Predict the structure.
Amino acid sequence: MRTKFMIAALSVSLALGAVAPAALAQDALGSEGNPIQVFFVPSVEAQVITTGGEIMAAALEEATGLNFEVSVPTSYASTVEAMCAAPDSSIGFIPAAGYVIASDRCGVEVSAAAVRRGWNVYWAAYIVRRDSDIYTFGDLEGRSWAYPDASSTSGFVVPAVELNNAGITAGEQVEAGGHNQVVQAVYSGEVEFGTTFFSPPAVPGAAWGIGDNPEPYDLTVDESRIGDDGALYVGDVQILDARANIRDTAPDVVDQVRILRISAPIPNDTLSFGPEFPEDLRVQILDALYAFAETEEWAQSIGSEDFYGWSGLAPITDATYDVVRDQFEFLGLTEEDIFN
């Protein structure tokens, strides 16, 4: 009986061995059967991200011969979860707060950060309706507040720190689901103020600088308009903050929504890799992205102002994001606080 069992077991083992290489071995990372996972946070319209992300994926595939699969999870939290679930095959375009959480949770590693029109930092904007009686930071006391997502660096974390430091307690708080939705909520009068990302306006002949007015125009003189290029302008000044993202449905958004103030500078959003992502493929992909940033197709992808508005990217280190970790610590925020 023992001999028959051993022979039968050996036969099964040999049969499995004959099919194991084809049926059980994992395809190489970057192959059609095992594409590299590229995740984007849903900070703007998902369809815009998907379309632009596919353009990026096609450029990367052509440059590297690798295969990529673009995904837009339903929240910042699910983006982090997706990266941590795929530590050896994921790339994430995630903002500072999300990166810090992903880094602390599972070792996600930053390799580069966004550059927007020469800036490797950005800001939060506090926005209100132009007919609002809110004129100073202190006037936000008790007012209803819309923010995109509790893990949004510019939309929630930084404003929460600044409001706390100023001794200001907001009233009703509304998680709107994205920066566009925050602008829409303020525009429609659903809330009294909102917090979104701020990118400096493009001022002809005189670059915007830190300390300058975030709205360097006079609406009693200059008209807000949609230009022939589809962008939002006041006079000749191009608007690049979150208000511009709803210009198609609310072309008068600048006439109705003003910037109360902007925050202290924030490190730009990241290009990060899963902690076990192969180093050789990481180098290939970074080289391909730097090259892609110099092409016209970049402006149809992540460089589009309707997407993330990156004008390029540059190397950065994890230590740059310690300021965000310090903000979490100051507020006593845990990952659960941010994501729940």
Observations:
- The chain has two domains: 36-118+268-339, 121-266.
- Residues 1-24 have pLDDT under 50 and may be disordered.
- DSSP finds ten helices and 15 strands in the chain.
